[in-house]
Structure formats: C-alpha cells, structure tokens
Amino acid sequence: MKAVILDVDGTLVDSNDSHAHAWVMAFGEAGITVDYDAVRRSIGMGGDKLMPAVSDVEESTPLGKRISTRRGEIFQSTYLPALRGFSGARDLLQRFLSDGYVLAVASSAAEEELQPLLERAAVADLVHRRTSSDDADNSKPDPDIVNAALKQAGADPSGAIMLGDTPYDVEAALRAGIRIVGVESGGWTEEELEGAIAVYRDVSHLLVEYERSPFARA
Predict the structure, then answer these.
(1) Are 82 and 106 in contact (CB under 8 A)?
(2) Per the confidence metrics, is the pTM higher than 0.85?
(3) pLDDT at position 108, please?
(4) Does 53 share its domain with 92?
(5) Residue where one domain finishes, among candidates 51, 81, 111
(6) What distance in Å separates the CA atoms of residue 21 and residue 71, rounded to the nearest whole number?
(7) Nearest CA to 124 among 152, 85, 159, 74?
(8) Number of domains in the chain
(9) Nearest to 93 by CA among 207, 214, 217
(10) Which of 142, 153, 195, 214 is 20 to 30 A from 25 in CA distance terms?
C-alpha cells in the first residue's frame, strides 16, 4: 500500500503565523511575555514541547493547561475563520489519490481544530484517515503521530512519503523510517528542511513539478 502522510498547518493551510499569535496572546493573558519569533519558530511542535521551549511553563501543569486551552479558544474564534488553504492543495491531493496513494493526516493540531483546518484547505472530503495531537503520547519531532498515521493508512514505512513544512516534520518522518518531501510555505527554507528528499516552494509548485517529483517515481 502506497501512502502519503500529510501535515496540515503550513503545508495545506496558511496558518502558522496565526497559531503563533494565538500562543502569544494566551501567554499574555496569563501575565507571561514570550517572544513572538521564538514561538513562531516552534510552530509545528505540539504544545507539550512548544510551551517549555518558549517559557518556563510545562503544558501538564494547571497553568500550562489553562494557557493551552485559552490558546485553542483564541485560535478558533479569532484566527480560524479567516484562514485559507494554499492554492493547489485540493488538486494535489486528488492527484495523489488518482495515483493510488492512501492519504493520512499526521498533524500536531488539536482534534477539534483538524476538521475546520481541512475544510479551509478544501480537502476534508478527501482525507478520512487522520491523527492529531490527541492520538500520540509525544508530539513532533517525536515520531508517534507519524507512526499512528502509518497504522491508519495500513502502509509500511518503505511505501510511504510524508509531506510537511517544518524541521519537526522532517525529524519525525525520519525517525519513523519514512521519506519526506518539504515545502517552504510554512516559513522554513530548503536548507532548514535538511533531510527532506526534495523541497518545493509550496503545494502549487509541487503540483507543477509532480511528474519529476518523488511522488511520481514512488
């Protein structure tokens, strides 16, 4: 079984900046000032890793849980309604399906955010195998979410390719034993996505170059 393991934020939906702003606001409401740039560079990790990376707060503490919950509320009410998927996202996923790939999502997003994000990308009806932060003990760059997506897809690592936008996607994929193709649309450069077997500007660029991409050669 061939499978494409899909990240969502920054890959299919232009949402990374919005996630960062929601985190900064949630910390601020708790009286904690965090550096936006540090938060932005941590987007792609789960909250369990992002919070201690940018502050002294652990997500598992009462304060951490309160900030994390508030972040979700801010994101869903303030930012999510205005988000848009990247051009070409639906066409690319349809091409994957026509080439016989099974699609599975491996996202650090919370479960309640995942469906709306996929709807913003206009691909919710194309992807029925989904894993979120609720499906893994450890978030990216640990491989748990990728492994869970592989299991849902019924695919062996040798038959799977991941598509993602952050160094955390790259590390998670490699630790799960699968290849990964990167896109720069999440804010990281080709050099920062070292370990990916190919890097494209965004999903639209990948679609244009599809016949020469690793997906066509798989």
Answers:
(1) no
(2) yes
(3) 78
(4) no
(5) 81
(6) 9
(7) 85
(8) 2
(9) 207
(10) 142
